[in-house]
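Priority: low. Protein: Helicase POLQ-like. Input follows.
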Amino acid sequence: MAEALKEAEEIKNTKASDFVQPFGGLPVKVLELFESLRGIKELYDWQKECLCLPEVRQGKNLIYSLPTSGGKTLVAEVLIFRQLLIRKLDAILILPFVAIVQEKVRIIGAFASELDFVVEEYAAGKGQIPPRERHKRNVLYIATIEKSSALVNSLIENKRMASVGLVVVDELHMLGEGGSRGSTLETTITKVMHQSAGTQIIGMSATLNNIKDLQKFLSAQVFSNDFRPVQLKEYVKLDDGIYEVNSSALCPEDQLQLVRAISYKCSKEMKLRDPDQIVALVQEVVPQHSCLVFCPTKKNCENVAELLSCFLPRFVLDHLAPERKLLLKQLVQEGSGELCRVLRRTIPFGIAYHHSGLTADERRAIEDAYSDGVLCVLACTSTLAAGVNLPAKRVVLRSPYVADTFLSRNQYKQMVGRAGRAGIDSSGESVLILQRKDKVKLANMLIGPNEQCCSSLLYESHKGLRSLLLSTIGLKITASTQSVKAFIQRTLCFIQRSQLKVDLLQNAENALQRLHEMGLITQKTPDSLETTRLGQAVFKGKCSVEYFLYGRHPGACWVAGGVDIEFGSQLYSDLKRGLESLVLSNHLHLIFLVTPYDRLNAFTPNWNVYMDMMYSFDENELRVASMIGISEGYIVNKAACQRTRKNVNEAVVRRFYASLILYELWQQKSIWDVSRKFSVPRGQIQQLLTSAASFASCVLHFCQELEELWSYQELLAVFVKRLSYCVTAELIPLVEIPGVKIARAKQLFQGGFKTLQQIASTEPHALVNCVEHLSHKAAKQIIISAQVLLTERAEALREEAEGMEISLAEKSPHHATIVN
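Result:
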C-alpha cells in the first residue's frame, strides 16, 4: 500500500511535459512506443473527441461505434494504458475469438516490457484460475468471451474485483450472437456491474438498430462517428459490368450505377473455369497491391486459390520469389515435413487460402506473410472479416452468401470494411460478384435497417438463465429468491422483456425450480439458496465453447468444451462408473472421459475406419470399448449398413469416435497422418485436441469439488498438461517454450537440451548444431522465449513469497517487526 502511494505521489510530481494530454494524458514514452512499434504519431480528431468526453474522463461507461478500420481499437488501448500506468489498476480486454486474443497478446506484449506491466493471455488452454496476485506490477488480462467469464468469477470469489478498473468489450453487439456466447457475455458484464461499481466498462459495437437498449443496460454514454481514414468505394459486378454502389439511395433502381465494363481477353478454358472473371478482378491489383477474396465455403477457398494460380500471368512468380520459398520451407517445418498440395502450388504465385481447416501455426505463418507483402492474395471465408487485422487494397466477394445464407448487413460491412490500408492506400475498393437472381435480395440488404441486438439469455429453453443463476448462487452474489430477482433486473434480457415477450421474473422462478430438480441447488426457504456439492462442481467446472474465429456457420471454429449445465449429472455418472471399472493399462479410457460432450456432430463416424480400429485393438483397448457400451459387432454392422440394436447410445458411439482421433494423437501420430486416416481437416483435429485439453481442465476442477472423485484429481493433474501437447512427460518443459513444437522438442531433447534452464543459458550456435534446419534467427528466438518464461516463473515465486510475507505481517505484528 505504501509503495502504491509513493508511486502515485511520483506521478503527481512529474512535470506536465512528461505527459501527452491529447493522447489521453499518457506519459510521453507511450507515444514514442506507438510511433516506433505501430507508426502512429497522433490521434484522429474523433479519437481525441471521444477520449475527452467528460463521462469518459470521469470513469463512466461508454459505447462507441465506427466503421471497420476507423481506429476503434486505439481508443481502447489508450484507456487501458491510462488504467495501468496512471490509475495503477488492472484491466480486462474481452475479445470474441482465440485468434484475435493471440494476436493482441503479441501486439500489446511489446508495450508491456517497456512500460513495466504484465499481459496475461486467457484463451484456449491458457490462463491461470484464479489469476496470480501481483504486488508490484499491474496486469492486462486479454481474454475470450468464455475465459473472461471464468476470470471474472474467480476475481469475485476471491474478492479481487476492486483491483480491476476497466473492462473493454470488443464487438459488444455479440450480446445478440445467440447461444451460449451471447449469454455468457451478458452474464459476465452484469456480474461486473453488480459487484464493482467503480469498474468502467467500454464497449465497441457495430452500428445497431437498438443501440439504446445497450446504452440503458450499461448506463453508458454513446459515441458514434462515420470516420474512415481511407475512402471506401463499393462496387458490384453484374454480368460484364462493374456498378458503383450508392448505399444511401432509397430506391433500388438508383443503388447501382454502371461505371465500366470488364474488358479481359481469355481462353475458352479460362472462360469455362472462371465465368465470374475472378482472375481479371484480382489481376487488376496484384502483385503490387493486396487482395482478399471472400468465398462462401472452405472448399471454394481452395478452388479459387488454385484457379488464380493457374491463370495469373507468369511474371507474378518472380515477385518476392526468395521470400515465398522461405515461406514454403517454414510451412514444411511447421508440418513436420508435410505441406498441403494446394499451398505448395499457390504460394509461389503469392496466393494462399485461409480458413479453419488450417492449423494455428499454418494460419499464423500465412497471416504474417500476407502482412509482410510476401503473399498478395488470400482466398478466405467470412471468418477472416471478423478476425485478425488483414486489410487489402481490393476486397472481392465471390458470392453474397455465407454457406447457404444470404449476407446480413453487418457481415457485408465487415467484409468490405477490410478494403483500404491506412498509411498505405489512399482508397480501398470492394467488388461483390452478383447473379441477377440475387439482385432484389442485395437491394433489400443495402436499404434495410441495421441489425438488432437481442439478449441471448433464454437460448435453448432458458439454459443461459439457469447457468446465470447457478453461478450467482455459487458465488454467493444471490442467496435468496428476492436477491435473484433483483440481479435479473440488471440484465439486458430484462430491459428487452417486452419485445422478447417474456415474463423474466417468472422465468427466473421456474429456472430456480429446474436447478433444484437437477440437484444443483438447495432451497430450504425462499431466503436460503445454496449450491449442492454437484452444483458447485458444475459451476467450478463451467467453461463454455470458445471460438478460434467467427460464426455459427460451417466456417466456425470451436476449440474448447466445458461442463455444460445440462451435462453435469451425466459427467458425474460417467466418472462414478469409471471408478468401478477404469482401465489404466492404456490412456484410452481417460481420453474418453475428457472428450467433450457437445459439438460431436462435427465428427461423423467413418464406419470403415471405426471398424478397422476396433479390429486393431488389443485386449485392454477392447475392454475400454466394452466398459463404455460399444461392441465390435455393432460397429461391424454399421460398416456393413446392416440393422443394429436400438439400445446402443449413439451419442456415446460418436464420442468414442472422437476419442479415437485423440488417441491417435496421444500415440505420437502426426496431425497429417490422423487427418488422412479419419478424413478430417487438420485444423479441425487440432481444435478437437485443444477442446479436449480445456475440457479435461474443467473436469479436474469438477472433481476437486467432489471428495469421492479424489482419485481423478491425481490422474488428471499431469494428464491435462500432457494432453495439451500430446507429448511424453519429459518433453513438456520444452514444448511450453513459445515457438517449440513437438518435432523440434524431440530434436532438442536428443541434442541434450532437456530443461528450460539449459536452453535459456545456451548460445544460438549450440542449438543450430543439434537441430536440423534451424536458422540462427529461430534459435535466438527460442533462447529469448526460454529466458522470458524462466524470468516469469522466477518472478511468480518471488511474488508468492512476498505475498506470504505480507500476509504474515498483517496477521502478526511481531513478525512484521522482524521483517522490517
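Residues 546-715 form one domain. The chain is about 50% helix and 10% strand.
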